[in-house]
Design brief:
Layout lengths: L3 H34 L3 H5 L10 H7 L3 H14 L10 H13 L8 H22 L5 H36 L1
Amino acid sequence: MLLRVPSFLLFLLFVFSCNNAEDANNLLDDNKEAQTSEITAKKIEGLQYLDYALSTEAIAEVIDWPMFQELQTQMNYLKQADLSFFTSERKVLDSLMLDLRIQTPEKLKTKPILARINVVKTKVLKLHSNLILDNVATEVKIESIRELLQSTSNLNLQINKKLEFDTFNKISAD
């Protein structure tokens, strides 16, 4: 009889400790879901950065640049808090950024624009790294999003400047 009581208590301890492991796993899953849902379109919309739009001349120039169009599409998805592209495999990101650089129209292949493309690539890869790691704080992820949005805006600015400078030179030559 005395041996049965400790055995029964050990059995109960074992059963309850197994149940706690399941609760702990459920808690970890809930934390991961909460962390990804903390990045919302509203938070991204509230980020402070200068957002330069392309001029009409620039839009006409980049309309036949498919990789730039793809980048702009992904930036629009990012602004809506759709992070799926940036959490995909790195090969996809590398491919987009390489093609963006290679397929740059000759008229836009200047050092400042190519430098901005390199900055965008760096920020894309940084965001990718921050998003796929579980131990990165949400604030750091949101700051990476802001940096990427700012870098693409700066790319737009450089394209606008290049085309404006070309227009000015054409007027001055006439």
